[in-house]
Amino acid sequence: MPPEPATPAAAVRIVLVEPSHPGNIGAAARAMKTMGFDELVLVRPERFPDPQAQWRAAGAEDVVDSARVVDDLDEAIADCGWVVGTSARARRVPWPVETAEQFAARLADEGLGGRPAAILFGRETSGLSNEELNRCNLHVVIPAHPDYSSLNLAMAVQVVCYELHKPMADAESHERRPESHWDRRLASAREMDGFYRHLEEVLVAIDFHDPEAPRQTLTRLRRLFNRVRADATEVAILRGVLKHVEQAIQRNP
Ligand code: SAH
Which atom in ligand 1 lies closest to the alpha carbon of residue 140? Predict the structure, then answer.
């Protein structure tokens, strides 16, 4: 993963993965700004910058202008403590799912854990891939009609931002947000990624995992650890354990 970008404050970051229509980028920026959010990251947008993005942004051109364009998802989420994928569809390996409203209540209650939270939105045509959804701590769904539950991309951004804004708009609950009740920052997506790679190496070294016959074990382990919301120190301890396993193997090959 690339180096973490320096993010001064924990914030909510909206990440659009491979959006194809620039109009949706502008409309998403407007949706964000009306709810008080301004951090937009675009992963490989098909057409950007583009006049259509500016038109659809109306009064939110500043959000469009300051949008960060990146080449891969890792770069967009490296420093984030929460990585949340939005999806209207259920997956083969079920992941923890909350409605946008439930997730907003959770964030208002638990705070951001000292790191930005990334909310991922997928492609207009195909949504987020399974691999991208596996990177997430949680999936967020906007409850919609079962016959047709797929919202337009920018409208999905609007609904999620609205739900996140609701508890924050309540000044009292904002003040009560326990940003610092935990003694450590949440592990970042980059730290978790380093842990997963290390874990896989060790599982191969001890013949627990065969990379030639991958089953869903690694996906399930990823889901387990992503569910826990480990902090940076806990992940460092786990890495220390893995290192000692490696040293033990070296001593007794
Ligand atoms: N056809 C795609 C949906 C694309 S809609 C599919 O079947 O997956 C574009 C994006 O808007 C989705 O990737 C998701 O991020 C968001 N979105 C649309 N409807 C949603 C819903 N009901 N709940 C959560 N996110 C939704």
Answer: 24
Pairwise pLDDT comparison (178 vs 46), residue with the higher score: 46
pLDDT band at 6 (very low <50, low <70, confident <90, very high): very low
pLDDT digits (tens, 9 = 90+) for 129-177: 999 999 999 999 999 999 999 999 999 999 999 999 998 776 555 554 5
Cβ-count burial 118-131 (b if 16+ within 10 Å, e if not): bbbbbbbeebbeee
* Three-state secondary structure of 162-214: HHHHHHHHCHHHHHHCCCCCCCCCECCHHHHHHHHHHHHHHHHHCCCCCCCCC
Strands of the chain, DSSP E: 12-17, 39-43, 68-70, 82-86, 97-99, 117-121, 138-141
Give the DSSP H/E element, type plus range, for residue 217: helix 217-228
Whether the per-residue pLDDT at 71 is higher than 90: the answer is yes
Encoded tokens for 144: 């919609």
Ligand 1 mean position, distance from CA 228 (Å): 25
Cα of 156 vs centre of ligand 1, distance in Å, is: 7
Q: Which pLDDT value is given to residue 7?
A: 42
Angle between helices 153-169 and 22-34 (to 10 degrees): 10
- The mean pLDDT of 73-100, rounded to a whole number, is 92
Phi, psi dihedral angles at 84 (to 5 degrees): -120, 130
Q: Give dist(CA 94, CA 214) in Å, integer.
A: 18
Q: How far is ligand 1, taken at its centre, from the CA of residue 110, in Å? A: 26
Is residue 48 within 8 A of residue 69, CB to CB? The reply is yes
Residue 16 sits at φ, ψ, to 5 deg, of -100, 120
